[in-house]
Design brief:
Strand order of the largest sheet: 1-2
Order of helices and strands: HEE
Strand content: 15-25%
Shape: rod-shaped
Radius of gyration: 23 Å
Length: about 50
């Protein structure tokens, strides 16, 4: 597992999850990215001056 993780990191990838199956297969995935659009943050409305 150390060699698999070292190779993964040497490739410039981040480790999101690592799994070893009962058959001995090592599965490494990158972290999930949230591609949902973020709601636009706006501050409170300002009062308009009249006059």
């Amino acid at each position: 597992m150390r060699r698999a993780l070292a190779a993964w990191k040497d490739a410039g990838l981040e480790v999101g999850r690592m799994e070893v199956t009962p058959e001995g297969r090592i599965i490494i995935t990158v972290p999930e990215v949230d591609n949902k659009p973020q709601p636009q943050q706006s501050g409170p409305r300002q009062w308009k001056k009249i006059g």
